[in-house]
Amino acid sequence: MSWKTLTYFGDSMLLIPTAVIIALVLPWKSDNRQTVWYWVLAFGLAGLVVSVSKILFLGFGIGSARFNFTGFSGHSAMSATLWPVMMWLISGRWSPRWRLFTIGIGYLIPLMVGLSRLVIHAHSKSEVLAGLMLGFTLSTAFLLTQRRTSLKGFSLPQIGVALLVPLLLLSHGRVATTQQFLERFSANLAGLEKPFTRADLFR
């Protein structure tokens, strides 16, 4: 598996449809009617914080040259918010040992995504670390609120259907244009001809 393949596990083109699938499945599989709203809040808050941090830098140059920080790593933050919850949902009726192992994989995937962002030089260490901290905080907070929630089990066909869209997106490999959109939006919002860049941060 290449680093670019690993980094795709944090791409919005994969995560947003998967987050929608989770939101659609939760009312069916959870005995807690509030679970889906907790999920929408957690994932939405991750996206909001990441977007605001990027807009502040791209449009207004607000960042840190000392820490080489231009905003939260979206791949790191969003993957750390989603994958622990996805694995918790899938393993809802498994034995405690297998469930713990599966949720652990959900925490490992974002770590690998964060590492891939460093290897391909997409982010600085501070941006990846901040993104992971944000995402893990939100996913862990979600899971803590669901300690008494009972989940219905998934049959193998149901797991296949739930993973169908993510697997198709992975095989297609098309990446989201979120960064380009934020660059245009931030520049227009701030009245700039072009957004701030990392090179501008060190000038």
UniProtKB/TrEMBL annotation:
Q: Which Pfam families does the entry link to?
A: PAP2
Q: Which UniProt keywords apply?
A: Membrane, Transmembrane, Transmembrane helix
Q: Where are the membrane-spanning stretches?
A: 6-26, 38-60, 72-91, 98-120, 126-144, 156-175
Tell me the first and last residues of the signal peptide: none
Q: Which domain of life is it from?
A: Bacteria
Domain Phosphatidic acid phosphatase type 2/haloperoxidase: start-end pairs: 16-143
InterPro entries registered for this protein in UniProt: PAP2/HPO (IPR000326), PAP2/HPO_sf (IPR036938)
Please identify the protein, giving its name as recorded. Phosphatidic acid phosphatase type 2/haloperoxidase domain-containing protein
What organism does this protein naturally occur in? Pantoea endophytica
